[in-house]
Amino acid sequence: MLLGHDKIEILHLPTPLERLNNVSDDLGVNIYCKRDDLTNLATGGNKLRKLEYFLKDALDKGATMLITEGGAQTNHGRLTAAVATKFGLKCAIITEDEYPGEISANLLLDGMMGCHVHFVKDMETGRQEVIKHYEDQGEKVYYVPMGGSNELGILGYYECAQELTAQAQELGIEDATVFSTVGSMGTYMGLLLGFVNENSPLKLKGINVLPYDGSDDLTENLKDALLEYFQQIKLFYNLDLELTKADFDVETKYIHGAYNNPLPEIRDMMYYLARKEAIIIDPCYTGKTFEGMVDLIKSGEIPQGSNVIFMHTGGLPGIYTKHHRVELEKELMPYMHF
Known about the structure:
alpha/beta; Rossmann fold; 2 domains; 6-stranded mixed sheet; 4-stranded parallel sheet; 11 helices; 10 strands
């Protein structure tokens, strides 16, 4: 039981922490990868750690259906559907996005698992209507917030922080800096609280991928949002812990103007890691985080010989979304021989 809350164990933990020998040799830094892409349902990903806690809460409350929300190609939605399927619950995803014109990537996997996806014009109104629709059919709905990022959702990565600390100590890299994506903030916040509250020597650096105010200049806005989120968590768990905006080490310069936009520099990072280590990263989350980490190494902000840990949070289906896939296909055509 973690901070007074229990979970239903779904995952085969701990996930591996492996050294990327070829990339480490190339960049002059000891780079390790935390393989949370290898979690064991529906192609894996970080949200499953959070969903272990949501599932326990949902079943304790007698839920028959999980409903969540996100973009049309939400990885979190796919994994919510996976957990629901595994435990005999129904599932639906609500999205404000336009239908992308094809059923591919996460949408394809959602449908394979029997999960309904509702495309709505307004999220607040649409959420109420969709939940009522299923409740009128007799379902007891449990709502999981976007990204699984609320007070309960941070527990998955608080636990991961403990797991990662033990692995780093075993490998003798206790001074490592951990690079994590910052999107809906739950993964980053869970790691930070786990490191700080459990006195871990590991340091955390977040790479933001979500333009909260529509611009690249959003460090203060992001830190304000993180501080507000922390205050909610502190109150919820009655934590004897103080954090200020200075405690949030985040980079906001790797968004490149938008969320989930196709970018040649991110695809270059995807090709680089695939060709060096046979590890696949996605163009939205892990691709931008890996680019940020490599850039900070090359700029000297991360000194040569340092130990770093790259959090691989999954997102594989993202490479099959049309707007990314068409660019990948064009660039990879020279490798096809007819």
